[in-house]
Structures
1.
Amino acid sequence: MSAPVSPGRSGPAADRARRRNPLWRMIALAWPRGGRFALGVLLGAFATGAGVALLAVAAWMLATAANHPSITALSVAVVATRALGVTRGVARYLERLVTHDAAFRTLAEVRVRVYERLAATEPFGRFRSGDLVSRLVNDTEATLDLLVRGLTPPLISVVTGGATVLFLTAVYAPGGLLLAAGLLLAGLAVPLAAAALGRGPGRRQSRARGELSTALVDTLHGAPDLVAYGAMDRQVERVHAADAELTRLARRDAAVLGLGAGASALITGLTVWGALLLGVAAVEGGTLSAVSLAVLVLTTLAAFEIVAPLPAVAAKLGAIRESGARLFGVLDVPAATAAPPTRRPPPPPTDAFGAEPTPAGLDPDGDPTVLIRDLRVRYGPREPWALDGVDLEIPAGWTVAVVGPSGAGKSTLASVLLRFRDPDGGSVSIGGADITSYPADEVRAVVSGVPQDPHVFASTLRENLRLARPGAPDGELWAALRRARLADEVAAMPKGLDTLVGTHGLGLSGGMVQRLALARAVLAAPRVLVLDEPTAHLDPDARDAVVADLLDAVEDYSTLLITHDLTGLERVDRIYVVREGRVLQEGTHAELAEADGWYRDVLTP
């Protein structure tokens, strides 16, 4: 069989995507809703234009009223003023409604993509938990900031600012040109300067926020160990240092915002004074009326409302860009498994509780035999082989152990069998069917695992068990607990299945956590069980008991037991010794105990 292309290797298109500016990539996420954002821009321009027009009409009405005309001459302006006031509020509301609706829908899609990425290939293993939380929350929500505050206001400013300049140019050409220059300074030069000043602090601010989140999560989760080893003070200092750095960067960001606001106010004042001086000169020269002067000056003043949000937006672009880079740092993690070229029928689960199995799927005959031939896996093109030509067989109903020192490739073997990673060479089949020909979820319907660090959610025993089979009745839950030798302990608890296990299962002993994970795996009704270092963190007494219970519980399954501990292996059907990604020995416990090699050396030191 030829080696499949490793999905972890990115192609030219993926590399080009990663090199693109994160801001443009974040905007591209909203492309399916481009029409909604365009409508929002038009509504925003209408609202902002109504505000400018409101002041212009008010200026004309006040200046005209100074000449004591008849009330009929002012009636149109009075009605227009009221209409513009109402229009401004309604248009602004509709603009916020449309743009926020589109932005929140886009944000929801981004969150779904992030969670799907995490669920598909587990890239969270590359990130520390606190930093990943910051990426999932703050950096993902930066998409909303960019679309609502970074995209819409500049477009509104272009539309409304251009229309206002054209209007004032028609009233008095020098005044229109002066306004155009002022708007370019306040709406382009100042934001560019703010963006340049805020780029560095913004980039560091996103990283500092991730560091603070990491420090807090590490402190909370590791509090018992930190207290036990007297390291809590140092950890608290780390939190304080991260908080101080984030505060310093926030102050720098506030200073940039203040400078931008001050520069905009200065340009606004100078432009208004310039318009006033030009207008007065024109009135004295007879080229401009007094009413037009009032309209010119007050419209110039109102026009700067158009570009007022831009410096603050530009100052945030550095932080938003870094957040986007961190977001795509998760989304761009290459897949560890490739989707099969065609969808095939799902494998039939063997129900341990009496349900009839589906007669079609991965193995039509229901044969749970696992056959691994010449399996080769590595984690990068230049990395050494984690598995280098492994041959292994798990006959139906057998328990097979894979033993060896840490780093031998045992956990990589489990990852391949559970379809968390595709082979770079060789094949893995169940009942004669290659597992890479089926979607990962369908393979996991017949292959269930108990990892060395099973995750237990801060909920009840019942809900932790139902992760394997949502809606399973209590009778099936108790049957799974009995099979895992945990039913007596749960029955002795005052709340039984409603007992809260605590954060990360702190309310349970290490052995109970392992048995709970086994019960959850059994409840999933697999045909093949993979036990990856199930006793890694247990003391010797608990380890012996857990191994005995595990081996009793898996008698009816094709089971792969991965371990570096030789406790209880006299009960397994076959043992494979793996070192440096190769199978060095195989046989029964008695055979390996008599043969020269790693197994006997560890068994009898």
2.
Amino acid sequence: MPELPEPPALPENPGPPRTPAFSADPEPLYSPGPDAREGTQLGRFLDWLAAERGLRFDDWAALHAWSVSDLAGFWSALWEFFQIKAAKPYDEVVSGREMPGAVWFRGALLNYAEHMFGEPEDAGRVAVLGRSQTRPDVTLTFGELREQVARARAGLRRLGVGRGDRVVAYLPNIPETLVAFLATASLGAVWASCAPEFGAPGVIDRFGQVEPTVLLVVDGYRYGERHVDRRGEVAALREGLPTVRHVVHVPYGGNAVPDAVTWDDLLDGDPGPLEFEHVPFDHPLFVLFTSGTTGKPKAIVHGHGGILIEHFKNGGLSWDLKPGDRMLWFSTTAWMLWNALVSALLLRASIVMLDGDPAYPDIAGQWRTAGETGATLVGVSPAYLMTCRKQGVRPAEVADLSRLNQLGVAGSPLPVEGYHWVHEQFGGRVLLNVGCGGTDLCSAIIQGSPLQPVWAGEISGPCLGVDAKAYDPDGNVVVGELGELVITAPMPSMPVGFWGDEDGSRYRAAYFEDYPGVWRHGDWVRFLPTGSAIITGRSDATLNRGGVRLGTAEFYRVVEELPEIDDSLIVHLEDRDGGLGELLLFVRPADGVDLDDALRDRLRLALRTALSPRHVPDRIIAVASVPRNRTGKKVEVPVKRILLGEDPDKVASRESLTDPSSLDAFVALAGDRA
């Protein structure tokens, strides 16, 4: 091996010191030391760039600037570094910087699934650890996974599945789902999945758009102590999806599904060697669906190549996944984090597929599972962390977390107190890596890495290859103040398009209408001079109180700190005459607590003291449940539209909510206001 040039040294604490305008903490909670890059994927990539491309960077800012200015150089470097296999090489890396319309790796023929099984020496390495409340544990090696995928592929071919056909799954987060997905991908067919806690109407709204030919189902599952029978929903799906020619039953709940191919039958017979249909870079791999809070869910199409290279980058350079690591991130099969989880296999890390109630038998259950499986990367939601904090959970005392080196957080903004709690529990040994991204890109936009500092309340910065900025309403870049989160250069994992959107008009309207040629993501962000960022909530749910914009996350941070409050939701109804409008705070009191005038006064005082008089709500109203979609996000915008008099069935899909009845109180209130 040739002697490597002197590697680039990235600073431990880039940028100017913090000021109280941004953070009250003078020092970061985590700062990479001089040896932080040793043994990391990012360190190896930097060494590779120096040796193979003669590129050296003085600091993180320079590395990121190169990654978004030299698109062809950065993405081709990833292609070579991660050794992407192509049956036919590409003719050019990218056609230009136009959005939408940039074409990536034109001419290449490849297959995502071909990269998931490793080399012969990986066959005995553990790939999947299935943990379920419905059945005993399941473990698959890479070799066993390859064999099952080959069998499932042969079974799907017997059912007539070929390139471009759609295979959909009403399955939980179990190894069979992974096997079916990879078998589908290997054929060049298109995958889509929904978790079985979805009701039939919501699933039909999703799957019906792609006109599937094969439907995989379970008959039921356990959620904590409760058995859930889904045979009625399966029957409704069969009735509501007329293009389905075959139903495959994965036995899971203990009951039969009539007139279905069993999983064992699908995998029966000699499959022969596992082969792969090589497809163009942008050939559809899977369809992800938005939460469906306005009309039918958008069917977002992601391609083989875009997901492949983006997940290599995100899993390797941001999450630092490599052989020997184990990733546990609780997710249902309806959330893009499921797709990100299974892509950890690209890097030969093991994955833990967890199905059931993540808070069973108590809130510390996920920590125990992490300890039992030896997880090195654990992903959780901000709500989970804050609940653990509130209940006094001490993770290191309930489980052996000695292998844990990174804690991923995504789904909604994490309050400052959550950062401090994680640091109190784990110190500097565990990297707190908070991210913000979404279904639209099936990855992160801003996030951390082992070579970036972490400040309380802040996300470390834009990911490599993501030219993320904050825009004001006129399309000017702003720093130090709130703005729209935008992306100003194309990325390979930007969607191929929306299913059925033949002329691309809905796709363009969704992301490029407000700032032509620039991706508007829909989050409200403040970038700091050092490059880190603070997400304050969805920009379309951001409150505009007399011309001053207020992020929703800061309300929740204050309100939900009170022990009397379990959950909350804030909505601002604008005054068409230009006044302050009406600021409404909805709270779910803790068990045994009544929302009386004294508690309302404490809430108002807390908001006035911690934030400002502008943050004091006009009314505080108790509700039995705060509406959240199935990824845990509060659905502020549909509630606002309901309160403004719009038809609830047109602005919100109850099937997309964890508690469909959670909208009832707002519908009733809208009726009273009429």
3.
Amino acid sequence: MTIRTLGGTARGALAKGLAAAGVALAFGMATMPSAHAVYAIAQYGAPKYPQGFTHFDYVNPDAPKGGTLVLANPDRLTSFDKFNPFTLRGNAAPGLGMLFESLTTGSMDEVASAYGLLADDIRIAPDALSVTFHINPRAHFSNGDPVTAADVKFSLDTLKSRQAAPSMQAYFSEITRAVVVDPATIRFEFKSNNRELPLIAGGMPVFSHKWGMRPDGSRIAFDQLAFEPPIGSGPYVIDRYSNGRTITYQLDPNYWGKDLAVRVGTNNFTRITYKLYSDDVARLEAFKAGEYDALVENVSRNWVRRDVGKRFDSGELIKREFPQHNGTGMQGFVMNLRKPVFQDVRVRHALDLALDFQWLNRMLFYSQYRRLDSWFANTPLQPKGLPSPGELALLDPWRKSLDPAVFGPPPVQPVTTPPGSLRANLLQARQLLADAGWTYRDGALRNAKGEPFTFEVLDDTAASSQWAPIMAQYTQALKRLGIQVNYRSVDFALYQKRLDAFDFDMTTIKFPDVQVPGAEQVDRFGSKAADEAGSGNLIGVKSLAIDAILKALTQAQTLEQLLDATHALDRVLMHGYYVVPQWYSATHRVAYRNTLAYPAKLPLYYGAGDWIISTWWRKPQAAPAQAAQH
């Protein structure tokens, strides 16, 4: 199904520059950071690629360059009103991550390694309380200015300021400051010895201090930047755009980094155009009509029943499922704990019991999905069995405030396949609701004050048609418990605004997968973030136990410590029933024109959309899909 992904455009652009991109846990044990300058760093163990490597294994170094790639909405965004992806207000255009680069970049076939991009060497202090980057003298912005340490400092100071989205402030909060050592050298200083912080610093998007500067030297406030073209050092620049519905990027002919080992075989299209359609139906029909080149299909029904037609039959359009080893992230019905109705864990557990996943998978999803049972499903980050001694060391201090079940096995999601049944699950849910003070009388489930149990599920209009049959099953089951659910869809801009203000009861969110958990978990579950509009803590979690576990997670010095903290976090979150977990797919479903090609070797950990943009190419002499007219 089509899902609204947590993070918005700001967190999406940031994620593109971060190094943590996988979950293969074949790490060596952590070693003391090096005090000498190196070409690459790893959070644990050593980088996969040796010094002097020529290209990543999953690219075609001889891929032809040229042509136009035309794409549709990469998510539920249907229009844009700004080019600044780092602020809270408004909706940023898709693809802006191609304009910005960072000091380092990761690879798609290893975990938490960072290779020099803008930086040509990296020096981590012996006490790990700072990292110093030397900027490649060739690096320059799209306006021709060299990238300097002052620009890097300006970028950090801006992203940590109140003019940036709260998620940005939270993500970089452990970086105390950036110090300009000389015009080509920048040092980041940290609050603590945290192995993730050099990667966070290296993955920070860098932009020119001239972005937003008027000819007279005055400056437009960062949070007021709208259609002022960003000044970044990335491979693409904005070519043209129209009506907040189409945008075309052009490969910068003067791009400075095209010969770097981390860039060989990438950025193969001369132009990349995004066309935004009003809803999923229009988007699908446009693809079948040949209006754009590739579709990452998130709707199982479409993949089986609707991604068909004469162009598929002729071979002009190709369907393929690509295996991937990403963690799944969490996707589910998210409850807002700021609402009194959701504050009792027994109520939240009852709502989990009412979802009949087996029926949905069989009748609506063509048995293509698996049920989520962890915030880190499909990875070694998911806990198994009883807590380890390391996990208990983190959990025991909070035993009095935690559900005793946290100290047992992870919870198992309810099933309705025989001998299980939805009726049995609802009987269990009814008892939990009664224990929480909710009883059925006068035609509704009511609390001691006589108030009926009712809440709203918020969605955006573009996806409502996909979710209607799912919501019909779920709301019908809740109705049998006496719970009244109102399903409301609004346009995307209002939907995002309400989420940023925490003005919702329940909604469906996909939390992006992470392979090496770190600072983003603080933004999602930290108590402080719960009170910051626009943060990732949509749930409104405020827990001293979770805060303590998050501190241990971000300060982990070894892989074993990281796993213990992540397992402990997952146990507390799953037993808290903050979301009704939904489902995931073990493959990327991609339909594409036969004029496109991709490397023979697939990466391990990747998003299908970014993979297409960064490593695919157009076959020579192949005509592109019809681009938007301006």
4.
Amino acid sequence: MIPQSFITDLLNRVDIVDVVGRYVQLKKGGANFMGLCPFHNEKSPSFTVSPTKQFYHCFGCGAHGTSIGFLIEYSGMGFVDAVKDLAQNVGMVVPDADDKIPPAQRAANQAQAMALTDAMTQASDFYRGQLRGADNAIAYLKNRGLTGEVAARFSMGYAPSGWDSLKAVFPDYDALALVESGLVIDKVDEDGSNKKRYDRFRERIMFPIRNTKGQVIGFGGRVLDQGEPKYLNSPETPLFQKGYELYGLFEARQAIRDAGYVLVTEGYMDVVALAQLGFPQAVATLGTACTSTHVQKLLRQTDTVIFSFDGDRAGRKAARRALEACLPQVTDNKTIKFLFLPSEHDPDSFVRERGYEAFEQEIHEAMPLSQFLLREAAGEHDLSTPEGRARAQFDAKPLLQSMAPSSLRLQIVRGLASITQSTPAEIEALFELAKPVSVARRAPPRQGRPQPVGLELQILRHLVAHPPLCVELDDAALQSFDHFGPESAERLRQLVAAGQALGPNGGFAALSQQLKESSVEYDSLIAEIASEPESDVDSVKMWLVATVRQLKADALKRELNELFSKGLTSDQIGIRYREITAIQNQLKAEEDAEKAAR
């Protein structure tokens, strides 16, 4: 758990204009910066970045957030990764309560990661330069229908034939980083007496693999002839884990947003060829089965994921593994489909033979996850017999158990119940599904806190926009919020506590990030504040002081009325009456002093 104090400090140090400017071309426009929104198609800029609020907001699609939020939405990073990325850029180290690594070792790990990243970058530049003079590699790519433009887009390169070509790049060819990054291999005799080092990749088309930050973390290399292995990948390294990365995701991010879906294919060449043929929203797993982490990454980028597999037996097997990886991530607002091409085709050959529109139609008609799951469960079983229906249920059980309770799971349960002559309740009971949906009693709708209106809404708006004002509020001010009713008063006190925790230097961005993590209750209010010109804090402070003073005065009047209505004696009333009167006089004196100062 990253401490909130660190998040606040981080957002105070980074400049959102610099962060967003790495990905969006921004131009100064008044107090803010403007650019084309990276989250939807637009021809005229409606995307604004406020250096004073440290917040971005799009007037077109409503996207908004802090530097952390931008990295999460744009790059598909998780919250922790986004924080670490920002922290690294400003020289901060993210604290981790569970991290038992000594500081010296952590610094050594960071130094190692930087050395590996630098080595991979230099190797990528070298391979890219080698491709320009490799006639055989260029001929191969042209024969596959690829242009120099698409090769440049993916920074494709060529590893020459020599055993130690990387010596031209790394004068210290014996450096440990070259082995740790997987660029070279050390071969040692059985008796350990002789060690020989040589390049891992030779005579191969090189596909750099990038992480979400655009850094090269690994390579895939394809042979030009019929040699084996056909594809050679970088080994697992501190930078590169195949189960976490997807080829082409960095290059496809904007295209995925434009298309509204991501197409997951089986290989590097599929991704590059599809980009060439008009489908730049394609990515590929890296020589390994699709994992749940892959699916999680993709669903951060888009609400629709379409897996494209060859129609042969291997393609069906890969699709089944992808299905199993998807099920833990399935929600009702996400769509996952499966596209099966004829056995003689991969996506590249299909588009070249049948055309763009035909492949687009195949994508449109891809099989929904629910249908694929039921088909997998039914398999070759004879559903006209009790044994066949029981076997279908047996095969479906682990699949449904891996899904979270949802409307989609209920729909699949109903479908399975229909083909196996059961009821949804029987299926859920038999499978011991967590939180059964079909038999659950409907709880009465929970009444949330009333929406803030009027004066309460104004106070909330000003405190969110200017968190340091929370520090100005004393206990009496918090008590005066009872004027709005218990639930509204509690909301105001919670907000004040959050603002006070940030201290006098807390900003709109830091408080917004904290509120976003704890509740969606403030999301629309934050969006409104982000879209408006920044209010003058001094004027707001004067208004807030006057408003709270009036709330305090009203609270004192109510207390006096309650005292007199209880039938108490003058002695019983006297002490508190004098206290209230003194506070009223103090409030009146403060008001008079302010009026005189104007």
